[in-house]
């Protein structure tokens, strides 16, 4: 049973993981080495880029860029694209995949709490599948940093799972008893709570809606997948777009 406190003779003790910077980095370094194809932006970079291009940005920063598929896609569309991530391992993969692109994307080691960018330096900032990993204090600081680097009138684009039941994705280590979400999620979002967080961070013109993203692939395959998701009434992701005043 999750949340138990008993300790066995071999040291097994059910307990929730307390995520530190070091543990988060270890988690994502391992994920990048073993399951990089499962990154959300790896599967949906085309749909994400299509949304981001609606305002025709000249510069975009992907905060928490992972292995860089969205950054590469934006560069292919002629945008000055920047990726920031806290894992050097995933940034190495991102740089390798974008080495031949023109304009060549930039990748920087950093965090949602301290972006290595000047104030008001980008037209669009993105937080794809990031805010579900942040507690209240980290969320406040992350949104403040995104707001800082955006130019006046710039847009923040976000995605996150919709009303996720966190316990459904929780695993337990059979060796030590550590309990953690399989994707390191620590909170669940609704459209109302997401809009409220953006409003509290000073963003304007906030729009939050459910959107079904389709995996990258040939056009006919994407069309069939979209029809399948609609028929199955697959729960859509939350997509939020907000502006800096």
Total of domains: 1
User: How many beta strands in the DSSP annotation?
Assistant: 10
The fraction of residues assigned to DSSP E strands is 15-25%
Low-confidence stretches: none
* CATH architecture heading: 3-Layer(aba) Sandwich
**Mean model confidence by pLDDT:** 90
Main beta-sheet annotation: 7 strands, mixed
Structural description of this entry:
With 245 residues, this protein is an alpha/beta fold. It has helices spanning 21-35, 40-52, 69-76, 88-97, 136-149, 191-200, 219-231; strands spanning 15-16, 59-63, 80-85, 106-109, 122-128, 150-160, 170-172, 178-181, 203-211, 237-244. The chain has one domain (15-244): Rossmann fold (3-Layer(aba) Sandwich), CATH 3.40.50.150. The strands form 2 sheets. A 7-stranded mixed sheet has the order 4-3-2-5-6-10-9, sandwiched between helices. Strands 1-8-7 form a 3-stranded mixed sheet, with no helix packed on it. A hairpin with a 5-residue loop joins strand 7 and strand 8 (178-181). Helix 1 packs parallel to helix 4 (88-97).
